[in-house]
Each structure stands twice: as C-alpha cells, then as structure tokens.
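Record copied across here:
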Amino acid sequence: MEQKINSDEKFNLEAIEKTFTNYKKGQMFDGVVIIKKENGCIFNIGGKNDAFLPKEEVANFDELKIGDRFKVIITKSKNEEGMLEVSKDLADNQILATQNANRLKLGSKFSFVVTKGDDEGLYSKMGEYDIFIPRNEISAKTRDTRSAVGKQFEATVTEIDKDNKKIIASIKLLEDKIRENVESLFWNSIFINKIVKGKVKKILDFGAIVDVSGVDCFVHISNLSYERIENPKDVLKEGEEYTFKVTDVDRENKKVSLSFKALLPSPRLLAIKELHVGAIYKGEVIKILKFGAIIKLQNGATGLLHIKNATDKNNKQIYEIVKLDQKVEVEVLEKDEEEQRVSLKLISVL
C-alpha cells in the first residue's frame, strides 16, 4: 500500500532537496573521506552528491585515511565527472585567516590584499571577515582605488565587529604612526658632523631638498662644490641618493643643513698635502694683517707669513717688508693638514 506524505513532510523534503542543489563555489563544508584514489579522494560533505578532493588540493595527501574528517571549500560546482570539486588547503588557509582576524584588536596592524576598489574605498577578506578601508583613510599615494586591486597594503584596525565578522581599518593612520616613529628616531640620533645618506627630492635654484630617513633636510648651493656653480643640477640629480655631512641641526624649528662638498677632497687641503716642510716656494702676497701677511703659493695653497718670520728686527711693521700683490720666495716651516694651516718664512722679495 502506497504511503502518503503529509504536507509537513513534503515541505521538509523540499527544503532538504534545496540544500542539496545549492552548493556554491567558495562555500565551506565539514566532511569525511570515504574513498581514496591515486589522484584524489571521494569526500562526503553530508549532501546529495559526494565531492572530489584532488590530490594537489591537500598538502598531506599521502597521510589521508578513509574516515578522516576535516573542512573543505568548494572550488568547482561540477567537474568533468559531474561532481563537486573541493580543496582542503583553501579551507585550512581560510580557517587560519579567520583565527588571525579573531586575534585582531583596535590598533592592531595587519596586511591584506585588495579584492575590490571603488569610490567608497578598498575591500578585502581575511577568512570569514570582510575588511573595508574608507576612502578618506587610504594613503594619499593611492589615488585610483581600482588600480589597487591585487596589491598588498598594511593598515591598522579602527573598528571591529566580531559578531558580524567585519573590520574597518586605516592605511593613513598607520602611515602617520610610522612617520612619527621615524621622525622621533631621526631627531634623537641626528647631530652635527654626522655622515648621512639621503635622496634628492627636489632641486631649487639655491639648493636642494634631501630626504634623510624620511625627514626633509636642506643643502645650500654653496655647500655643493668648492668650485662656483650656477645650478645645483650641475652636481645633484633628483631621485638619486648621495652621502652628506650634517652642518647644522635646529631641533626647535625642525631644520637640518647638509653639505655635499664637505665630503669631497678640498682643493686647499690637496694643495697643502703637496707642500714639503723645509722646501722653498714662490708666492704672492694677497692680504696684509697687523701681525703678518697671507701668501698664496703657486700651487694654490695659502699660508701665514708671521712678522717674526719676515724680519729679525723688532721695530719693523709687516707692510714695511712686503707689499700687497708682491712676489716673494718663502720656506715652509710647518703645516697642519687637519687644521689646514701653513706657517711660512720669508726668504726673499722678488
């Protein structure tokens, strides 16, 4: 005798049948291995159709046994054999990502890859969590949100709703924190005469703005070369990195001055290095002082001819012995390369 199905039973069967046919790509299910083959496993997820778990979709395939239970994610609603196709690795990754998201708190820093971008902001997923970065919390460097799709960013959590699995975050806030930390470290470690590396951000008519560890510093045109130059571009290139010497630090006004030429060989020092103590050189008087005269030697070095080394007479003035622009012969008595000083003795007036 045919058994009749009442309306409630009919409804329940329809509901069950509906769940059997509603499998979608990306859904996660708990199931069990029922058959193991060379290329994969038949995996029952409790529905009308069993699923196929390809060998390459599980990291520890050789260790799987019939009866093993774990979660999988649907990757195909129907493969060549008409079966659902699933992945254990994707499910493991999503479970781990969800666990990581559950550990996040307000102010936590995390990385994410953008899955969508529009006028409202950036979107991503972390396991079961939806991530949203509002437009005004995106970095100023990211002007086109759509071009950010597929790129990785770092952000800090500003709101978190664990019940509804939603996270709102800010890239800008994290960048501001990083910038503050970088600047604090910079100002605590900068000092005069420190050697630093910096990238030229912008060249001006009278110098250049140089980025040193994220802080803008300035090098004046007069500190670029020992020779007279018309434009900083004669020495520096925008976007290139150079080594500089710190010449001034103004912490109150947040200003740092640099010198490029301070690390170059000084023409004056090179000329002094060429001199030999005891040797005689020709030169010219370029300045008269109360206590002596400044002599410029033929190789470009300058030295002091003190009155006591110009005459043995105590009542003589230097201008009575040598005149401005006069040619002389002098002997090098001493030289101090570090202080760039040369002491001379008058041999004869030419």
Summary: The chain has four domains: 7-93, 104-175, 190-263, 267-349. Residues 1-20 have pLDDT under 50 and may be disordered.
